[in-house]
Design a protein that fits this description.
The chain has 199 residues and is mainly α.
Length: 199
Amino acid sequence: MKAGVWMKQTVVGYILALAAVFLWSQNILLAQGFKDRILPLEFAFGRWMIALLILIPMGGKNVWRYRAYFRKKEIWLMGLALSGIVLTNTLIYIAAQTIDSVTISLLNLPAPIFLAILTAIFLKQKIAIGGILGMAVAVGGVVMILANGVAGPADPVEFKAGDLWMILNAFCFAVYSFLQTRRPAFISQTTLLTATVLV
């Protein structure tokens, strides 16, 4: 690959990654802004209905084409839909009822930890020393967030319902990410996402 092409692809990759983070942050801010006006389930349903209207023209044809495959793998597809579509975002909106946007963002940190554990258990992949150290730092950070940054064990720790909803949300997202590893090569990411949102 030529250096110019590689550089262009790298820059585009970074731009798209930053765009994804920016859009994800807007989702959390909207959840906080509309928490008193829109119920969490309504918010999640509306969000995914808009996504489905966008996805159908892009992936609907292939969902129909591979419908026999999806029927055979319906438990896997239902698992993807439940963990990644129904629960993951809805739990964020529920959490927004009792905790702030910054805490919501920070409490997504355990998701990669849960994913690494699921991968180690079910795919027998070993976690490297660097990964274990990173997980320890992340866990320490989550504990500090949940403890509201208190200095010692004698200080009172007040947990909010939203804290626990976000830990569950992180686990659900890890399950969704793990199930994604079962996607066969002939099913594109767009096709699978369309089928998942449709379910």
